[in-house]
Amino acid sequence: MAEVTFGARAAARVALIAVLWATHACGLAGSARVAAPVPLIFDTDIGNDIDDTLALGVIHALAIRGECRLLAVTTSKDNPLCAPFVDLVNTFYGRGDTPIGVVRGGKTPEEGRYLRKLVEARDGERLRYPRNLVDAAAMPDAVAILRRALAGEADGSVVLVVVGFSTNIARLLDSPADEHSPLTGRELVAKKCRLLSIMAGNYGPKPTKEYNVFIAPEAARQVYAAWPTEIVASGYEIGQAIKYPAASIERDFGYVAHHPLREAYELFDKMPYDRETWDLTSALYAVRPDRGYFTLSEPGTITVDDKQLTHFAPSAAGRHRHLKVDAEQIARVREALVMLASQPPGHAAAAR
Ligand SMILES: [Ca+2]
Predict the structure, then answer these.
(1) Over the stretch 149-167, which tens digit does the pLDDT of each residue have?
(2) Is 0.85 surpassed by the pTM of this model?
(3) 17 and 163, same domain (yes or no)
(4) Containing domain of residue 334, as a range?
(5) 352 inside domain
């Protein structure tokens, strides 16, 4: 009898949990429908580090939840494997038709540690990770893709998430009128772009040179000097304070036999390691600016000096801010990023 009672209680508890989960899922879907999805462009030096790849997964998870629309992905790392890799990740998440543009004459042409292995991975005769793109050499230029994506959206709506070198967006600012828009690049950005959410620089108490800036300092300098709309920068110190846990890579991606994020992470460095979440923070802020994950600095102006160090000078009229985090925010951001990066592509269908 006692066992029967226990079994009934357990069944009731399971049912209650199911109801709570369903309510929670409906609540998420409902809240996502309240605000229009953020039209978002992702510009990345994917392949240099692993945070770009996790950030692309986070963006897809947010797109699946209806919180953003991924308009295009452009690459600032000048290697022909970047675009096919982006395409296989997009295809994995059911968005293989996302436009991709590539940099030419850009920085860091080396292959990196994981692009080729995943692009070429085969199980028997079949590609492990299907993709549409075959010839990266024939890919459109990043600036053309950026201009087309901006021109097609409502004024003042687009958010650019830039997590590599500023090469493409500096060239965008300098671009002339073309078949996509009669406006110059600077005019087009001023008209269409609401926010540049950029991972670049270091705004912590001990500023050091940051990779995205010192690899392409002229482009970073130009963007901070000439970008005509709001910029929110995630500095080196933000991603450094929030590590992606190796335990999540080991435990949360087993819903498929082969997961591109997990396999890239395992190839990038010797497991187990907790990697900094630099690029993920810019993606999260871009789509969820109002969730209290981060505190914004006062407004001001960011500059890049001759030693490639970034400086933030507060001013009421400034259009730049940088992210700040406290201990509670660090825990919340890490939790959100783990949930989003490891979210299965079928999440939205399952929640309905
Ligand atoms: Ca990056």
Answers:
(1) 999 999 999 999 999 999 9
(2) yes
(3) no
(4) 37-344
(5) no
